[in-house]
Structure formats: C-alpha cells, structure tokens
Amino acid sequence: MSDAAVIDRASLDALDKKARAAIGASADEKALDEVRVAFLGKKGEVSLLMRGLGGMSPEQRQEIGPVLNGLRDNLAAAVEAKKSALEDAALDARLAQERVDVTLPVRSEPKGAIHPVSQVMDELVAIFADMGFVQAEGPDIESDWNNFTALNFPEGHPAREIHDTFFLEAEKDGHPMVLRTHTSPVQVRTMVSQKPPIRIIAPGRTYRCDWDATHTPMFHQVEGLVIDKTTHMGHLKGCLKEFVAAFFEIDGVEARFRPHFFPFTEPSAEMDVRYERVGDEVRIGQGDKWMEILGSGMVHPNVLRNCGIDPDEYQGFAFGMGVDRLAMLKYGMHDLRPFFEPDTRWLAHYGFTPTLLPSLAVGLS
Amino acid sequence: MKFTLSWLREHIDLNPDVDLPRLIDGMTMAGLEVEEVENPAEKLGAFTVAKVIKAEAHPDADKLKVCSVETVDGVKQIVCGAPNARTGLVGIYAPLGTHIPGLDFALDTKPRKIRGVESHGMLCSAKELEAGEDHDGIVDLEGDWKVGDPAAKALGADDVVIDFEVTPNRPDWLGVVGIARDLAAAGLGVFKDSAVAPVKGEGPCPVKVSIEDEAFCPAFGLRLIRGVKNGPSPEWLQRRLRAVGLRPINVLVDVTNFLTYDRARPLHVFDAGKVTGDLTVRWAKKGETILALDGKTYELDDSVGVIADANGVESLAGVMGGEESGCTDATTDVLVEAALWDPLTIARTGRKLGLVSDAQYRFSRGVDPASVEEGLELATRLIVDMCGGTPSESLVAGTIPGAPADIDFDLAEVKRLTGLETSAARVSEILTALGFGVKKGKSGRLTVAVPTWRPDATLPADLVEEVARIEDYDALPEAGLAKPVGRRPTAVNPARRRATLARRALATRGLQEAITWSFVRADQAALFGGENAPRLANPISSELDVMRPTALVHLLLAAQKNADKGWPDAALFEVGPIYLGVEPDDQKMVAAGVRRSRPQRHWAGARTADVFDVKADALAALDAVGAPTANLQVAPTDNGWWHPGRSGRLQLGPKLVLAEFGDIHPRVLKAFDVDGPILAFEVRLDAAPEPRAKATKSKPAFEALELMPVRRDFAFVVDADTAAGDLVKAAAGADKQLVADVAVFDVFEGASIGAGRKSIAIEVTLQPRTETLDDKALDAVSSKIVAAVAKATGGSLRA
C-alpha cells in the first residue's frame, strides 16, 4: 500500500485533534513554535502528508487534497490565534508589574496670580470699551499746570490742600513738579492733543501724602472723559449706572447722584450705591445705607477753555474713582494696606487665575 | 461743620413733614453731605431725674453720704461723695450697669459695697454726663422736674447735633444762616430772613485804624463799647456753643464764637483798656512774637499779617487774637473788630504757623464782604443786650468790595448741560430763594445778580448747577450714551496691551503679581544705578524718598519679608513704571520679577531654580508682547547689581537692550539684608519695536514640506569661555535653507577634554525641501556646519 492509501478522513481528524491539543497546551511562544514546526514545518506531519498528495490517483487527490489544505490552513490560524493570546497574556503580566502610586504629588508647579488691582483695571477697561471708551495715559510725575491749574484749581485754592500733594525737588515752569494726585491730568493731556469727539478712560497710579488704615501714599484711580456736542448730565447718569450694574454683576443696583464740589466739573456729582453690611461682608446693590463710589460732573468751562476747546460748542462729562476701593468692595477685602506689601499668602488668596482675562463675552470674573 | 437742630430752627421754619431723616436726606441731596448725627437724648437714654429723700452721713467715711433716692426704679440706697448731696436735691440718676459717657466706664451690674454700705446706682455730675464742665458736685436741678423725666430734657441737652462736609466752594455754609437758606430753597421750610437792625452809636470810635496793605486787608471795621459788664454767658449761649464743641469763656468772647458759627462771620474783641493808641494792620517784622489765645507763642515774619498798637503786635490777623489784649471778666471797654482778609494769605499763615482756628478756616475760604458792617451790628446788639454798655459809631477803614459781577444767563444752558426741561419762572424761583437777584434780560435771557456770599458763582454753568441741585439730581432725565458709529478703535492702547500680555504670561509661569511703591530709599536706588533718581521734596518717610529706577527693590525686600514669616519660596513679579528722570518720556514700563534659588524638594528629585528660569521668564514676557525673540542677542551685562558671571542681557543691539536677568549681586543682597541667592529679571516692555503695521491680518501661506527631516548630532570641543550661543548661531547659519533647528543637548568639561576646554554637543535638524538628502548631500552640509563652527569659535569635532 502506498502512503496515500492510509490517508483517510478519520486519520486526518485524529491528526487535527492531536495538533490542536498540542497548540492548546503550549505554555509560551517557544513551545508554540515547536508545535508549529512539528506539524506545519518543512518536515512536519502535515507537510509530509501534503507531499504525499503527488503519489495519489487523481480521484484520491481530488478528495483528500482540499481536506488536507483545509487542515493545514486551520492549524496555521490556530497557531496564530494562540500566539496572539500568549502575547496578550505576556503583556498583561508585564503591565501588572509596572504600577506606580498615582496618589503621589505631581512635580511642584507654583500657581501664579494676577493682583486684584490689575484684574479690576482689566474689568473696568472691558466694561468701558463696550461703551466706546478708549484708553489714554499720562505720566505719574506731572506738572503743576496739568495736575491743578488747568483743572481749575487756582493757586492757593483750598481744594489743593485736600490733595496732600507729593512734590518733587525738580521744577517745571517755575513750580515744583508733583506726583499726580489724581488721574485727571490725563483729561488735560488728551484734550490738548486730541480733537473732540473724545471718549477715554485712564487707569493708573496716583499719589497722596497720607498713610493710615484707609489711605496709602500710592493708590489707583480710573478717569473717564466724554467730550462732544450733545452729552449732558443725563448721559452721565445713564453711563455710570450701566457701569455699576456691569461691574458689580448685579441686576438692579440702586444708585443715586448728589451734588458735590470738584473744581474741574460744574455741575458736579458724587454717586452712591445702596449697600448693607452682613456680618463682616459688605453687600452692594441692596440695603438701607448709601456708599459713595465715585465723583463726576460736567467738565467745567474753564477746563475746556484751558485745553483749547470752546465750551460753547463742546460739552461733556468726566468721572473718577478709586480702583483699589472698587476691588475691596467687589471682592471683600477689608484692609487696603496689604495691597502694596506683597504677601504670597494674600496674593494666593485674593489673586486671580492668569487665564481669566476679563471680557464681557466670557465673563468679568 | 457742626450745628444743632434748635439753632437751625432759629433761621428756618421747617415744614411739618420734615423729621430728622427727611432733613438729613434733604441736606445730602442739596450738596450738604451729612457725616454724623449725634442725638444726646440717645446717649443719655438710661439717665433720669431722681430725688434725694434723705441724705445721711456714712458711718465709716467722713466725705461720703448714704442717700435714699426716689428713682424711676423705686427707692434706692446710693452712696455719694458729692459735697452738695443733700435731702431734697433733685438730680440725675444712673441705674446699675449704665455706661457713664464722661467717665467712659460702665457701672457694675450688681450693687457694690462702698466702705461697707451697698450702693444701688449713681447720682451724676454734669461733667460725667458730658452736659457741662461742672464736676464740683452732682447735678442740682432747678425747676419743676418729676422723678423719671429724661435727663437729656432736664439738662437741656436734647438738641440733635448734625455734622456735615462743607465743600470748599461754599464758605456761606460755615454759618447756620447759610445752611438754612439753602434748605429753604430746597423746599424743606421757610427761611427766616433776619434783617440786621443797626444799633445807634454815640460818637465816633476813638481808636483809629490804618491799613498798610489793602490787598491783604481790604476793609477793617471797628467799634468801641464802653462800660460793659462781662462774665459767664447765659445758659442758652453756653449750651449752643458746647453743643458744637466750643468751650464757653465769657460773653464777649462767646459772642464772637457764636457769630462765627451763626453767620460765618469771625470777629475779634480787644480789651480796650489793654490797647494803647491806634491800631495798625501791617506785615509782621522778622523776629516779632505773639502769645496767642491758645497759650502758645508764635514767631513771626513778614509773610504774616498782624494787628498792632503802640505796644506792638496784639493779634494774628484773621487767625487768632493775642493773650495780652484778650477780654476777661474784668474787661469794661471792648473793641469789636470785623475785618476782611485775603484768603490765600490767611491759608498760608495757618499752614506756616500750624494754626487752624475757626476764624482762620473761614477767612481762608472767603468771608462775605457785606458781613463787615452786619457783623459789627450783630455783635454790638448781643453785647449790649447781655453786658450793657454804650457803643460808639462804627469805623470802617479801607473799602468793602462790591458785589460779584452779574451773570448773563441763557436758560437753554440748563437743558444743554443737564437734559432738564425747565421754565424761566422756576429758574427765577430757585435762584431767588438762594439769594440771587433775577431780572429779565435780552431775548429770553436772565440777568442774575450774585449775592455777596456766593463768590463761587461766576458762570452760567454755576447757575445750572444751582437749578439742578435744588431740583434734585434724581429729577434729571437718564439717557444712554450712544454707541460710536464705525469701526471701534482698540480700547487698550499698545503700552497697556503689552503690560496686560506680559502680566498674564508671567503669572502663567507661576509667578505672583505684586504691586509695590513707586518710591524707594535713595541709597537703594543708587545700588540700581539710580544715583540721580528724582527726589521727593516731602516724602512720606525717609525710606521712600526717591522715585524708583527699577521695580526690583521692593520685590527683593518683599521676598525677604515673606521668608522672615516662614514662606521662603516667594516668586514675585510686578508690571509697572520706573522713572529715569522727571519728564514723561523718562517713565518706562517694566516687567520685573524675583525667584529664590533654593532646592525644591520632591520625591522624584530636587530641583533648584537657576539663571535659566529667569532667562525663560524674561523671554516669556518678551514673547508675549511680540518682541522678535528669535533675533535676540544674549550678551553679558555690565550693570553692577548683577552677579558678574551669572547674568546677561537680551538685546536687539548694544543700544537696544530689552531685558536683563541673572543672580542678584551678593553685595547688593547684603546691603538690602536679603538672604541669597536670588534670581531676578527686568524686562523693558516699551523697548521692543512695534511690529510693522500690515494692511491685513492675513498670515503667510503655510509651507507643508512632505520630505522627512533628518537629525544629526555633532560634539565640538571649544575653549571653556566660548559662548554656546555663538556656536549655535554658527551652526544655524551654516546652511539657512537646510538647517531648521539647532539644539544643545550636552555641555561637558573634564579631564578627558583637557584643561580650559569644554565639549558642546548639538543636535541639528535638517529639513530637505526639494529632494531627499543622500549621503553625499548629508556629508556636504555636515562639513559646512563643522567649518562654520570652527570659523566662529575655533572649535573642532570631538574625537
């Protein structure tokens, strides 16, 4: 009998069973490869049978050939599947050894912070930008003319004394220069250099020679100025009420305007908002008390004239407010002094995340 | 300015509906901003009238008495040490637990034994109740008071005291009459216009007055009253003065103080018996002195005006009288002075002498010229009524100035400036109520006469304010500001934009933003090159006397202060101004920061901040403001406050330095008493040139290169002092088409390299553009790189 004679279905089934058992029993890739060689290698059992196909009769070959091919392909697939399973198991076993304690702290990345005064200035700029105000600036060291005289503070005027002015040793035009006592000189600089219509805000450092629980020798103000041919006190009221609602982010802040005196405005007004004190907290917008938050008024004809603008043709309003105080009111700081004596804990507590650049679209705070 | 409600009622009939809250609100809304309201009835709420039924000697103390007192709480046993405690006395009782204002302590809530006898409360003196100076005995009430009546009422201390802010434009509000006039105009009541009735004088004033400088003293009124009987003022006057915080002295003096507050008219009284010869108003002579009524001696010079007689200086003009010629109870002949003074001179004198009086305060703000004569008449009337005597005629030296100029007032101004619709009738009504004279002028305009007490009113805008103020600002129509048409300009200007961007970039790097003083101590400024820093003439403290040439001074000090408190890892920055001179252009915007170089312990390995952290800070700030950081040169700095070997500057050229960074020089730290090492940087935000403006915001097209980049490593051996930056620059420039990036990945010094030498290893990224690099092309570009490095640094490939 030729070899081919013994190839029948039953023996092929037995071979398949044997091979699959061997594949299944392979504990690792090496053992699996040995099994593969034993059955599917050049001299493997299946390969040897394949070789025998040549000696078969065409009929036999037609019968056994496809079966044998099928057997070979199935076993090859089984080897691949087993190989993949062994790889997965090996990977799982390795990963199981690669644990870290994820509760350990990350590398120290100190959190930076934006100072509340900077943040509030950015808030103010965002609010007034929406109303068409653009920013203007002036230097901290000012001439007597820009800080006082042009603003209708005649020499020796009692209002000058209220300002507790810092003087420099340096002089200009026969007067000692000053550290600006308010941001109002930016009004003068703007009106002198620019033609109406004007709509500016000017935030910046200001200085008065005063140091106690509620005053620091340096502080911040923001100035606003609108000059055109039609703006009157009603616009002043509307604009500043809109500002207060936007800034404190409260609907229906009750506000009032009452007469006051500033040399550079006529009529002049101070603006109060309602507030109440709940424990240590000041709540703006409601309550039975009034808190003054800013000074304002129609620009005095003398100031317009001093800046080369005809007060019969042009008119408008100006306002000024303390930025530090606004920050305290909105964010609940009680003491002004730590503002300018940097304490890392205070800055971490009251500072702002650097990515939070205030905008009306994304949110002020 | 303080006044009392009853005093105000002398000059205004308040409307029946005007209670205290309405009055205060009305004042505030008319521009008289109320600061404090004190109601003594509240302060004395616990105190009541009581009657001593029986007063017996204390068994164990000679000076004490044991009183049976009928009180609102029933009969109480009270031990009292007052000499006037006696049976039948009607006084003021304080129950246990009451706070005694004049002593500022509270009685125990339980009866206390005094020398063995229990005392159930207290009988009070006027001083203990802050209702008078009397402390010789307990209050001994006259009149028909019942047990339990409120003490405030019995003591006549039930008058509400109102304190408000007088704005500098309204000197007339420094008198109760002026307040009443405005409140009446504001609709709170009817002004009682108390016309001043002249007192007829007998014969001319015998003392003459000469004025040396009428610019200083335009007018000086004087009147002699002979045969007065001076002494304590009547109770109503004393009470009124005490209520506003003044100490009653005697009638003659009290009258001047009264009129100062009632009419904003300061006066002075001389004891005529102590004045020799005529009076001269003149500038003081250097070296002259005066003992003033406040008991202090002032040294004078020719900037101070005085009133002198034959004996010398008798009074500081417009400020304070002299002790020598002051009125006492013994005074029988009195000279009453009512003068006008130049406000600026009086203000200057007050500052110069450090002397602020009620008179000085009023004269420096401006006193109604018409009150020279009125003041003399009012004072004479009061003195004659209370002290008798015979007045002379009044004498006025100099010239009383006329009324201020009329204002030609176009009613349309009201609407133009306030938006308020009004009528000529209403405007006239308001102005008239305020004392202005209103006449019809040409073409619907008004001619407005300004009263003598309103020097602030000179322009139509001033009258607009009067109308708006009296109508109430709440009545002004509210309007939105029209949004501007067309493209909005960027709200933030370039300088502030840079500050904002740099600030947020630095905070993102873990630094906390500080804001520190613009002024520093002169010697600290000098250590940072600020030897000529602008100096303040009146610094707030000697620690803060010049404008800062750097923002680093306070940051360094703050870092140390935090360390002293147990927080040594401060990483602070500031974006703010520095001052290289006094001109506007000398003010520069910087971003400066400090980091402490201290190992940060961490379980995965410690790390210490070094120069490259602050270099990165500086670069981050410059990147944020759009500076061309790729083109920066890194050069050593010669500024002495930096560590000479561990610092550098970032510049676009030797004259265009954008930043400096490094270790602060240990000598500087020592001078500041700061523990080092400390790293710092300072970036000049305004130094980087603005990028060229372009027509559109469009960016250049993206060049998508398909070919793979190739990376090659080179290690060069160079002299130890060769700058790595020069080597990198040479490599990058060797083939600008191909070399896309050069990164330093190793720097090594050691015996294997040789003394004075070091190895710098770089990875060069080559980006082919048109065809893949073959070995030949790679060799060619490598040779170019080696040659370029050799030329620039003298370095060669490491063997």
Output the keywords.
heterodimer, A: 365 residues, alpha+beta, 2 domains, three-stranded antiparallel beta sheet, 21% strand, rod-shaped, B: alpha+beta, 44 strands, 26% helix, elongated
List the helices and strands and how they pair.
The complex is a heterodimer of chains A (365) and B (799).
Chain A: H1 9-25, H2 29-40, H3 45-52, H4 58-96, H5 116-130, E1 134-135, E2 141-142, H6 144-147, H7 158-162, E3 167-172, E4 175-179, H8 185-193, E5 198-207, E6 218-228, H9 233-248, E7 255-259, E8 265-278, E9 281-284, E10 289-299, H10 301-306, E11 315-322, H11 323-331, H12 344-350
Parallel strand pairs in A: 1-5
Antiparallel strand pairs in A: 2-4, 3-4, 5-6, 6-11, 7-8, 8-9, 8-10, 10-11
Helix pairs in contact in A: 1-2, 1-4, 2-4, 3-4, 5-11
Chain B: E1 2-4, H1 5-9, E2 12-14, H2 20-29, E3 33-38, H3 40-43, E4 48-58, E5 61-71, E6 74-80, E7 90-94, E8 99-100, E9 105-106, E10 112-114, E11 117-119, E12 122-123, H4 151-154, E13 161-165, H5 176-185, E14 189-191, E15 209-211, E16 219-226, H6 235-243, H7 251-263, E17 268-271, E18 279-283, E19 289-291, E20 297-299, E21 305-309, E22 312-316, E23 320-321, E24 334-339, H8 343-353, H9 358-365, H10 371-387, E25 390-391, E26 395-398, E27 407-410, H11 412-418, H12 424-433, E28 437-440, E29 445-449, H13 460-471, H14 494-508, E30 512-513, E31 519-520, H15 522-527, E32 546-547, H16 552-564, E33 571-579, E34 587-596, E35 599-600, E36 607-608, H17 611-624, E37 633-635, E38 642-653, E39 656-664, H18 666-672, E40 678-684, E41 710-719, H19 724-734, E42 739-748, E43 757-766, H20 775-793, E44 796-797
Parallel strand pairs in B: 15-18, 30-33
Antiparallel strand pairs in B: 1-13, 2-14, 3-13, 4-5, 4-7, 5-6, 7-12, 8-9, 10-11, 16-24, 16-25, 16-26, 17-24, 18-21, 19-20, 21-22, 22-23, 27-29, 28-29, 31-32, 33-34, 34-40, 35-36, 37-38, 38-39, 39-40, 41-43, 41-44, 42-43
Helix pairs in contact in B: 6-7, 7-10, 8-9, 11-13, 14-17, 19-20
